[in-house]
Write a structure and sequence with these properties.
The complex is a heterodimer of chains A (114) and B (114). With 114 residues, chain A is mainly β. Chain A has no helices and eleven strands. Chain B has 114 residues and is mainly β. Helices cover 0% and strands 51% of the residues of chain B. Chain B contains no helices and eleven strands. In chain B, strands 2, 4, 5, 6, 9, 10 and 11 form a seven-stranded mixed β-sheet that branches. In chain B, strands 1-3-8-7 form a four-stranded antiparallel β-sheet, with no helix packed on it. The chains are: A mainly beta (114), B mainly beta (114). Chains A and B meet through strand 4, strand 5, strand 9 and strand 10 of A and strand 4, strand 5, strand 9 and strand 10 of B.
Chain lengths: 114, 114
């Protein structure tokens, strides 16, 4: 069965520094992977998704993620953090063709230090 | 307005009472989901539905009941609320057309059981 693991429940970076949020998947078949962001008291909003068309995926707000099959990873990055990036980030995946359930990681809370 | 809406946004109820959380989507998406969000657990799937009159259990279904008589509605009922069901509940919908389509989330319902 598909599972998604996020390393680090809390990450703090200084404003202007690189943001790196880690996500690994376990699956015997290539998954479909997503990153979502949740701002306080709001629902989840899609940041980007891996569609197998390209291993480097660009999303909204300057975020991108690289799918690495050899490392079973889909880490989220942003070159320069902004105060407005403070939020909770979730990695999610779908596998098992015909089973459309999204499996979520436990989330990473990103704090931006002024 | 197009989208997915949940009601109520906030609810306080007493232990033992029945509570129904409502979810409505306007896209005619085939799939609908209920998740609960708890600190340290991320989002856990309670129930999902592949189409009207088709529902199935997720990861944490005990104490919950769902129905889906119409494609656009997917209510979640807590038959006899317990304190452990205090949580934030999210409804989501997803088009089955492609595996890489994202799920769209409602704003959430914050439920407190006292």
């Amino acid at each position: 069965a598909q599972s998604v693991t996020q390393l680090g429940s809390h990450v703090s970076v200084s404003e202007g520094a690189l943001v790196l949020l880690r996500c690994n998947y376990s699956s015997s078949v290539p998954p479909y992977l997503f990153w979502y962001v949740q701002y306080p008291n709001q629902g989840l909003q899609l940041l980007l998704k891996y569609t197998s068309a390209a291993t480097l995926v660009k999303g909204i707000n300057g975020f991108e993620a690289e799918f690495k099959k050899s490392e079973t990873s889909f880490h989220l990055t942003k070159p320069s953090a902004h105060m407005s990036d403070a939020a909770e980030y979730f990695c999610a995946g779908v596998t098992n063709f015909g089973n459309e359930k999204l499996t979520f990681g436990t989330g990473t809370r990103l704090t931006i230090i002024p | 307005d197009a989208g997915i809406t949940q009601s109520p946004r906030y609810k306080i109820t007493e232990t033992g009472r029945q509570v129904t959380l409502m979810c409505h989507q306007t896209w005619s998406h085939s799939y609908m989901f209920w998740y609960r969000q708890d600190l340290g657990h991320g989002l856990r799937l309670i129930y999902y539905s592949a189409a009207a009159d088709i529902t199935d259990k997720g990861e944490v279904p005990d104490g919950y009941v769902v129905s889906r008589s119409k494609t656009e509605n997917f209510p979640l009922t807590l038959e006899s609320a317990t304190r452990s069901q205090t949580s934030v509940y999210f409804c989501a919908s997803r088009d089955r057309a492609y595996m890489n389509t994202e799920a769209f989330f409602g704003q959430g319902t914050r439920l407190t059981v006292v």
